[in-house]
Amino acid sequence: MPWGGVVDEAMRAVARAYGLGEPVGSARYAARGELGRIWRLDTARGSWAVKELLVPAEESAARQDAAFQLAAGKAGVRLPRHVTTVEGDVLFDGRWRVYEWVDLVPGEVVTAAELGVVTAGLHQVGHPASGPVAPWFSEPVGRAAWEELVAAGGEWAPALERALADLVALDALVAPPGAHITTCHRDVNAENVCRAADGGVIVLDWENCGPARPAWELAGILADLPLEDAVAAYRAYRGAGGPAVVAEPADFSMAIVVQGHLLEFYARRALSPEESEENRGRARDRLHAMLDRPLTPSRIDHILAAL
């Protein structure tokens, strides 16, 4: 839908900064994630996906993920082409990014096997890591923080308390990242691997990429899937030449810590009076969805046995 007003004024500034051409009509709101909103902007030169970052980013970090995108594209991974400003920057005003617009098949979810093949392609890129693995992806929440979160209350607190023993047990499985660190997408799932309208699949949302162990990323993807689909994804990954192997509970380290940090993030956002009602509502929905099907030690055992 058109938003007009302030948004159109901002889009005209974005179009000038990136040399996109004169806008044709109002920008249209397309999608919303945790870190940004996507707008479709049609101009005299074509159609563009303009990402409005809700958390300002640094140009240096944006250049690093753009370099990974270029490497992945050259290796055969399909993704929207990112656009730089006329001055050669990835970001404009610290909160805008632009990609070519790609039409998707609405409502169609890619198969587990396709997720596996795409992940194999991403891991075969072998793009060097820009530094150590960030704490969000490597350091567990810990018992004290879990107990504090339960005590903070909220409609989800009883479910969180019931899961407490498993969450603490999961934290004990987390291992240091060690070697074999490369740049990974770090957000591969059925929401970000989509069917393109002109055929094939395309990988979206690259702003979260960074240093990680491929085996950890793969295990996290499998943990998000029903067991039968996890087996299909893993077989497709290995069949497509994926280099990682998921063989022990420690391989789920990133899945464990990300689940923990997300639960903590959503709980604090849902309770914060400073957040908008939209953000609090989204956080409550995410909490209920995650706590309905949390990753547990027994689920990890079942996945490993099936693999």
From TrEMBL:
* UniProt key word Endoplasmic reticulum: no
Task: Provide any one GO MF term from the record.
Answer: kinase activity
Q: Which UniProt keywords apply?
A: Kinase, Transferase
Q: Which InterPro entries match?
A: Aminoglycoside_PTrfase, Kinase-like_dom_sf
Q: Report any Pfam family annotated for this entry.
A: APH
- Per the record, the domain of life is Bacteria
Aminoglycoside phosphotransferase domain segment(s): 31-242
- Name of the protein in question: Ser/Thr protein kinase RdoA (MazF antagonist)
